[in-house]
Structures are given as structure tokens and as C-alpha cells.
Amino acid sequence: MRTDVVVVGLGAFGSAALWRLAARGVRVVGIERQAIGHAFGSSHGTTRLFRVACMEHPGLTELARKSLALWTELGERTGETYVRQTGSLNVGSLTSAPVTGARKAAAIGASTGDLSHQELRTRFPQYNLEPGDVAVWDPGAGICYAEPTVRAQVAEARRLGATVYPHTMVTEIDVRADEVIVRTPTVDIAAEQVVVCAGAWLGKLVPGLPATPRRTPLFWFQPADPESEAFRLANFPSFIWELADGRGLWGHGSDDGFGVKVGLDGGSHRTGFDPDELDRYIHPVADIAELAAAVGRAFPGLDPAPVKAIPCMVTDTPDGQFLVGRYDERLVIAGGDNGHGFKHCAGIGELLAQVTTKETPFADASFVDPHRF
Ligand SMILES: Cc1cc2nc3c(=O)[nH]c(=O)nc-3n(C[C@H](O)[C@H](O)[C@H](O)COP(=O)(O)OP(=O)(O)OC[C@H]3O[C@@H](n4cnc5c(N)ncnc54)[C@H](O)[C@@H]3O)c2cc1C
């Protein structure tokens, strides 16, 4: 089989790349080793936090805005909602990463508002704040939907002409001078270029990249008083909170179809394993004890025992930024999500399509250039 572009891995980044390439009329084939929208990579569960004033890098604001624009356009066609802009809190001391990072994003145009300690306490009594805690409000933020969006992006790509092979594992990417051959047990595809978006498996398919899988389970909680409305999404919007000891808590409230979600960064998550060997057991002590203690202290109105947990993975890079762009003449890559990639995936898909077709990128992507190391 021969085509213009093959996209390997149809999770968040790959499904978006497939969609944006198909939208340009490029002959594109997508290959995914699992079902479309599955629970074995980085993109499962119902929701992810959507932020615009991103603390991780000011350049991310442009990517989030592009995702929002593309998902809004897609939603107008499908009648579905992919982002709910409920606003979001960046909480911590004046020198914490969520507060300083959101202010840096504001300095280059993200719209934000400051909340003093007292304002924060009054408006969000759910928080057991430290005395120096303040917040930056990100009004364009909220939540986005993970598995439904991956499925929608693939469905849209198919509608626009893409060919999709689910349940098909790429075993080799053979880059030659005049073409690239993508091999699977059932079909070999020759293409001009390949876009590799293999998530935690990126380093296995493209050896030499500084991409390290990290096990990061997802957890859901419920209010100590099951009748309480305090932790509904409308009253408890998404947040990132740097605790006094430097660890990060993040999450959002519940709504119909999903529970209160809270996660802890800087906990005892394991790294450097083979993603095919991910430990899928949730360990009462290693996984839950530290998070439950942090939740119990931070939000006294929540029952600190999680009601649900699912193992998941992220992929770390040395500087916490993605690996997105051209890797060589025939190879374009996207990965290294560092646990904050979903909200940017449609924007990254657009960027990947632009890089592949040699258009001018809509944003400065030098901070995610895979050659920067
Ligand atoms: C607990 C947790 C919380 C998070 N919270 C947020 C959040 O609030 N906001 C946010 O923006 N982001 C968040 N993220 C990060 C976000 O989910 C990831 O950035 C995003 O899902 C990464 O997508 P990906 O395409 O790189 O990986 P994936 O979605 O895993 O896609 C990679 C795909 O490649 C496939 N694949 C691998 N090898 C092969 C092969 N050989 N052949 C064919 N297919 C292959 C895999 O099966 C997989 O489907 C969170 C992540 C986790 C784990």
C-alpha cells in the first residue's frame, strides 16, 4: 500500500494530526495498536483540565487557543461539546509556579484575574489554604473531554478521507532515502513521511529521544457529605495548587457523567519502565496513602478515600516541554507530554500537519523542537 503520510499512534496527538492532515486533503493512513479511545496509554478517562494561561510555558497559550478554536468548529458540526470553559484557579504563594506561570502567560496576552487570599477564601471555602496562598483566575480555562475527543478526531479524519487501522501494531519504521516503510504484522505501507505519536512508546519507536514514561494513576473522590453541592464543577472549577511543600495538587469538580477528580504531582510515581509492562494494579499504600493524606488536608469537605482509580502514563522530557516537530527529512514526531498535553492536542495536530506539509506554523514552536536537547 502507498500513501502520502502515515500517522503512528492515534491517541490525543496522533488522532489530531490525522484529522488536521485529512482536513488538508492529504492522503493519510492512521495506525493504532489498540481500539480508538482505549485505556492503555495516556488519554483515557472522561476529562482533562483545559487551561489557557498555562504555567508550564507562555508559548502554550497559543496552542490552547488553537485547540479551542478547532474543537469549537468541530463541535458546531457534530453537535458535541469538547471544552467547557468554567474558568480555573492557579493557586499558591506569590512565588509558586501556578501563580507566576499564569502571570507570565498574562503578560503575553492571556486574560486573567488576580484573587487575594481573602477573596479566594470567601469564594472557594472548599480550600484549606496556607496563609500566603493567593490565586490567578484563568477565565478561558475549564475541562476538556479525553476519550470522546480522541474518538471524535478520528471520526472526523475518516469522514474527510483518512484510512484507519485500529488493533494494528507498528513493528518497524524503516526510513529510506526515497520513502519510509511502516511495517505491521498484517500490512506494510510505503509513504513520503511518517508522523509518530506513540505516547509512552515514542522512545521505543524512535530510539534516542529523551522521553521517559512515568506511571500516573487517575483518582476520583466524593464529598464527605454525599448531598453536598460544594464539589460540583459549577462550584469547584478546575485548579492547580502548589502546596507549601512544593507538591502540586490538581483537579476539578463533579458533574453528570464524571466525579470529583484530584491528582498529586511530585508523589511517589514510578518512571523509566517499559510501557508494555505498566503496573496496572492500584497499590493501597504506594498509590493512595500520600494522595489521600494531601486531599484530606487540602479539602476537608472531601472524603479522602478515592472511590475510583485507573493507572495511566505520561511521558517526561528533561525540561518538561513537549517534543513536537520535524525529526528528519521523512520523520515528524509528537510526544513527551509531561502530563499537560491533552488540552493542546488539536493545536499540536494542526502544527504537525503544517510541519508535514511544509506550511508556515501558526505559532512559534521552537520551545518544543525535538532537536533542542
Ligand atoms: C493522570 C493524568 C492526568 C492528566 N491530566 C491532564 C490535564 O488535566 N490536562 C491536560 O492537558 N493533560 C493531562 N494529562 C496529559 C494528557 O492526557 C497527555 O498529554 C495526552 O493524553 C498524551 O497523548 P499522546 O497522544 O502523547 O499519548 P496517547 O494518547 O497514549 O497516544 C499514543 C498512542 O500510540 C499508540 N501506540 C503506541 N505504540 C504503537 C505502535 N507500535 N503501533 C501503533 N500504535 C501505537 C498507543 O496505543 C496510543 O494509543 C494527564 C495525563 C495523565 C496520565
From TrEMBL:
Q: What is its EC number?
A: 1.5.3.1
Keywords of the record, alphabetical order, are: FAD, Flavoprotein, Oxidoreductase
Indicate the enzyme's highest-level EC class. Answer: oxidoreductase
Where is coiled-coil annotated? none
Q: What range(s) does the FAD dependent oxidoreductase domain occupy? A: 4-354
| Required cofactor(s) | FAD
Alphabetized GO MF terms = flavin adenine dinucleotide binding; sarcosine oxidase activity
Give the superkingdom in one word. Answer: Bacteria
* InterPro entries documented for this protein: FAD-dep_OxRdtase, FAD/NAD-bd_sf, MTOX
PANTHER family attached to this UniProt entry: FAD DEPENDENT OXIDOREDUCTASE DOMAIN-CONTAINING PROTEIN, PEROXISOMAL SARCOSINE OXIDASE
This chain belongs to which protein, by name? Sarcosine oxidase
Annotated organism of origin: Kribbella solani
| Taxonomic path | Bacteria, Bacillati, Actinomycetota, Actinomycetes, Propionibacteriales
